[in-house]
Amino acid sequence: MPTFNPVKPGEKIDLSKLDPADSSFFEEGKKEGKKQLTKLTEKLEILQELFYAHGKHRLLIVLQAMDTGGKDGVIRHVFEGVNPQGVSVANFKVPTPEELSHDYLWRIHKQTPSAGEIVIFNRSHYEDVLVVRVKNMVDKHVWSRRFDQINAFEKMLSEEGTIILKFFLHISKDEQKQRLQERLDDPSKHWKFNPGDLKDRALWDEYMHAYEDVLSRTSTAWAPWYIIPSDRKWLRSLIIADILVKTLEGLNMTLPDRTEELSHITIE
Ligand code: AMP
Ligand code: MG
Question: Which UniProt keywords are listed (predicted)?
Fold first, then answer.
């Protein structure tokens, strides 16, 4: 598969020019795509085990999207085979009073991965320049300085040994309508339907604008953003799995060599 490129630092992003159903990255179709996805998730399983055993790196994966964008789907389908020991998900919801009484990165920093660990952020500190901005929860002078703060925070994490990959799951407004409708029509999906999501949907354009700023201003060499065309679920998962596998393979990890140390041991 070709390499899927992240947003270049400083690149001006216009989301209306990027097709959420774009399939040019993989033109062999859904059936072949699903086959490839299975192969990649099998590879990921092995690589994650190695990552854990190797124990030298930390990996932080950030998932951001509008409601129904597929964050949960990515967690389920891309990571289905991995060992739960060594991989965890951090969900960031509306901050609690305690969280709000600290700075916005306090709850985030606590959940970053330790050595050998992979942590997936289901929403993240980016909510503090997205929903917080769109819904006027803090003044502009407060949220607008957060882009630089976030870049500095992520740079520190990266310099201290954390690999950071950020995925924006780009869906169209029409696709969201269909997915919300499915949730309404299917009683087994009612638990996922949150009437509040409709308020966010009504602010779609404002959110897209806020996302464009996030993507243009916080894609860095040390923590790149990938804009994933996500109207097709299998394609979205395939692209992300491919990026993860390539990233992990690029680390050239080996199992710790303990041959010498263990050679003197006899088990009675
Ligand atoms: P969900 O992920 O759909 O279960 O919903 C979580 C909700 O929490 C979303 O509506 C987010 O916009 C909201 N949320 C997450 N982080 C923040 C934040 N820092 N400030 C305000 N709302 C947030
Ligand atoms: Mg929601």
Answer: Kinase, Transferase
pLDDT digits (tens, 9 = 90+) for 117-176: 999 999 999 999 999 999 999 999 999 999 999 999 999 999 999 999 999 999 999 999
* CATH code, domain carrying 207: 3.40.50.300
Answer whether residue 267 is part of any domain: no
The 10 Å Cβ neighbour count of residue 196 is: 10
Q: In what order do the strands lie in the sheet with 58-65?
A: 87-91, 118-122, 58-65, 162-170, 225-229
> Of the bound ligands, which one is closest to the alpha carbon of residue 121?
1
Q: Which two tokens stand for residue 185?
A: 């029509």
CA of 67, closest atom in ligand 1: 3
What is the tally of structural domains in the chain? 1
**Residue 4 within a domain:** no
The overall pTM is greater than 0.70: yes
| Angle of CA points 240, 162, 124, to nearest 5° | 60
User: What dihedral do alpha carbons 217, 218, 224, 227 form, nearest 10°?
Assistant: -60
Closest CA to 87 of 49, 37, 46: 49
Ligand 1: list residues with CB < 6 Å. Answer: 67, 92-95, 123, 127-128, 131-132
Rounded-to-integer distance, Cα 132 and Cα 39, Å:
39
Q: Hey, CA dihedral for 45, 47, 50, 55, is it positive or negative?
A: negative
What pLDDT digit, counting tens, does each position of 87-109 carry? Answer: 999 999 999 999 999 999 999 99
- Nearest-atom number in ligand 1 for the CA of 71 is 2
Among 108, 113, 118, 36, which Cα is nearest to 77's? 36
